[in-house]
Amino acid sequence: MAGPINWISQIGSITKFGLLSIPQRRGTVAATVFGIAGVVAVLVGVLSIAAGFKQAMTVSGAPDAAVVLRSGADSEMVSGLGRDQTKVIADSPGVAHTSQGPLSSAELFVIINMPKRSTGMDANVPLRGVETSALQVRDKVKLVQGRMFEWGKDEVIVGTGAVHEFSGLEVGSKIKVGRFEWPVVGMFSAGGGVAESEIWTDAKVLQEAYNRGDSFQSVYVKLNSPGAFQEFKDSLTSNPQLSVKVVRQSEYYAEQSETMTRLITTLGVLIAGLMAVGAIFGALNTMYSAVSTRTREIATLRALGFGRGAVIISLMIESLMLALVGGALGGGLAYLAFNNFHTSTMNFQSFSQVTFAFRVTPELLVRGIVWAAFIGLVGGLFPAIRAARLPIASALREL
Amino acid sequence: MKFLHLIWCNLKRKKLRTSLTLLSVVVAFVLFGFLMAIKQALAGGVNMASQDRLVVRHKVSIIQLLPESYKARMDRIPGVDFATHQTWFGGIYQDPKNFFMQNPVVPEEFLAMHPEIILPPDQKKAWLETRTGAIVGRKTAERFHWKIGDQVPIQSSIWSKSDGSRSWEFDIVGIFDGQKKETDTTPLFFRYDYFDEARGGAKGEVGWYTIRVKDPTKAAAVAKLVDQEFENSSAETKTEPEGAFVQAWASQIGNIVLIVAAILSAVFFTILLVTGNTMAQAVRERTGELGVLKAIGFTNAQVMVLVLAESCLLTVLGGTLGLGLAWLVISHGDPTGGLLPLFSFPARDLLAGFGISLVLGLITGIFPALQAMRLRVADALRRM
Predict the structure, then answer these.
(1) What does A236-251 look like in DSSP terms, one character per residue?
(2) Is the predicted ipTM greater than 0.85, yes or no?
(3) Of A34, A253, B11, B266, which residue is 20 to 30 A from B382 by alpha carbon distance?
(4) Nearest to A360 by CA among A387, A330, A334
(5) B267 and B231 share a domain?
(6) Domain count of chain B?
(7) Which has more confidence, B31 or A128?
(8) Shortest CB distance from A31 goes to which of B16, B157, B273?
(9) Are B216 and B158 in contact (CB under 8 A)?
(10) pLDDT at residue number B339
């Protein structure tokens, strides 16, 4: 029995021999590599949609911010709070203050139909009415063009995502809400968060346009610290005047994104899983043909004293390397094609559009490579075992 | 046909290679089936939309309500057969994940408007007699094991009763089926009169209207008349054909057709590589034999057809198996638990799948076949 060094050098030489013969098997090898690249590209591509959507929803939620809704409401859309209630909420313990008062914004949330640029068809764009501290409550919101709307005036500002996805929202244009025409005076970004999909105006203006009296749908507050959440929540839920649901902003958005993320992830894994099965067959085909064209060579090596283990391992390495090349190719392709691809979809919970960008994250790429490696190993294993089991004498007779 | 045996034997020669190729073709067509079902689930409502129905909603957005009094005005507009309304109830049965639609409707008008909803006459009668009665589609009834006579509690996230409670009880008086396989049988419909009396606010307001037009060819003109009727009122309307309404709704989820097409092309490109490669190998190995065939009198065209037939047999066989398998799995229903009520495999796409499998065979076989056809007997025999 040869020593481990010798064994490793055996593996090395068989692997080298296999890799050098690739040009002669261009067709089959290319079929495998591209097949695996296809699987990885689809897997990474589909999951990047879910990752992007989730990112847009979760980046919005700061740990020291909370949302208050009517108890039982799962989104702002179906929530409702009166002025007296929003006042109690703003004055609760735990809410951060500035010289102007508590950092609390009572808001309205409705949808308005605007045509999508990509299809020209109407989509539900969220229209939010906010109070003066809205910008401090969400620290990521920044004006990038134009100016802030004037309080009390029929003016709106729009998120960058909304401007990108829907037509007629550029600064300087006017949006029609019922009998009113509101000029767009500014554009804001929100660090990629969900607010970028929205149109904002003064809550009072929106109340009037929608005959909402003095009612709101949600209250967004900034807390003294992330730890102050419990105190804030307890004071509201124990208040008999109120019947509200208090959630951290981050949890609120995570909950909102759940349906869509679940849908995309289920379908994505299903599709990529099936494709992976197909790619395993392709890889098996390649490696079997690699073995059968090299029957005599392998038999000769075995006759010269190369071990079974070395044959198996080197063939597995060959298959793994092909798979990794395919995986890298597929991941790269997905990155180029999908990363930062802007689109918008429906948020089922709030009935409205969320604009977001696909995100090919490092985790997804790693996941793709792991799948590729798995396909390569399974695809290499059986042909390798077959090669190692070849009866030397009869294989040599084929010479 | 007499060469079928020869083609079959050729395929059997390398059993392992043939079966692996066959399996990858099968997988491709299982995927094809799935993607078509997903597309159907997300966009299929468009095909089910009726040509003679218009949908009228509030011009600003669907969440704004319209007065119930609009019905009488709509019925008087020339070209309108009749109008009826629905309202989004937004109810939850036990768990928010158990999603299905529930809408209050006016039973007689609703059933007349939607002939695709098949309800036995005695159940219809029971519905008209029971104020709290509701009818539910077969799929949802089976999902929650509801029977006629059951009382089901549903929490509405939108509508509270006058006493502030959000829990609504409905008596199941009927279970409806769809006229076609594609008809959505997940919703629950209950009576508007019960709803309007019991709700705490917004009395006399409804979600949207459906209008039946007398002449489908004049639908666009009627839609315009409807919108004109309510122009400059406090609730202006937007009227569009049912198909356009459904399509706009589906396109809000995203550009489904494009995504499906992208995935399918990735899949078929991959399969093309695998199958094409197998055929090329098969022809290469058999150069000598093909030479013999030609030497004993096979024409060039016959040899080409022989090779093409072999690749087509492989892909059509794989395609049939894959489509069959997909059909079996898809008929088990929606894999996401309620999010895709229309998840099914339309016959049209099944046929398209067969067509594609044949084309796939032709494309993958054509180059090896041409190679075989051009083979010169002397050269081929020398390689034996």
Answers:
(1) HHT-TT--EEEEEHHH
(2) no
(3) B11
(4) A334
(5) no
(6) 2
(7) A128
(8) B273
(9) no
(10) 63
In the stretch 136-165 of chain B, residues with CB closer than 8 A to chain A read: 155, 157-158
**CA angle (B75 as vertex; B73, B77 as ends), nearest 5:** 75
Residues B126 and B204 in one domain: yes
Two structure tokens written together for A345: 């979809």
What pLDDT is recorded for position A259?
76
With a cut of 80, say whether residue B332 has pLDDT above it.
Answer: no
Quick one: tokens of A308?
């079974």
pTM score, whole prediction: 0.77
With pLDDT > 90 as the criterion, what percentage of chain A qualifies? 35
| Least confident range of A286-290, B212-216, B366-370 | A286-290
- Residue at a domain's end among B210, B237, B252: B252
Q: Average pLDDT of chain B?
A: 87
Same-domain status, B131 and B247: yes
C-alpha A127/C-alpha A134 separation (Å) is: 14
Asked whether residue B261 falls in the same domain as residue B362, the answer is: yes
Q: Does residue B154 share a domain with residue B125? A: yes
User: Rounded mean pLDDT of chain A?
Assistant: 87
Which residue in this structure is represented by tokens 């799929």? Answer: B139
Task: Kindly report the nearest CA distance between residue B377 and chain A, in angstroms.
Answer: 25
Confidence check: pLDDT of A355 > 80? yes
As a whole number of angstroms, the distance between CA A160 and CA A169 comes to 10
C-alpha to C-alpha distances, B77 to B57, B66, B206, B228, B253, nearest whole angstrom: 16, 17, 19, 10, 34
Q: What does the alpha-carbon distance between residue B319 and residue B330 come to, in Å, rounded to a whole number?
A: 16
Residues B205 and B80 in one domain: yes
* Residue recorded with tokens 């073709």: B25
Q: What separation, in Å, do the N-terminal and C-terminal C-alpha atoms of chain A show?
A: 28
Domain identity same for B194 and B97: yes
Domain boundary among B252, B277, B299: B252
Domain with B319, as residue range(s), is 4-45+255-382
- Whether residues B351 and B275 fall in one domain: yes
Q: What are phi and psi of A337, to 5 degrees?
A: -80, -35
B221 touches chain A (CB under 8 A): no
How far apart, in whole angstroms, are the C-alpha atoms of residue A376 and residue A282?
10
**pLDDT value at residue B144:** 92
Residue of A nearest to B285 (CA): A293
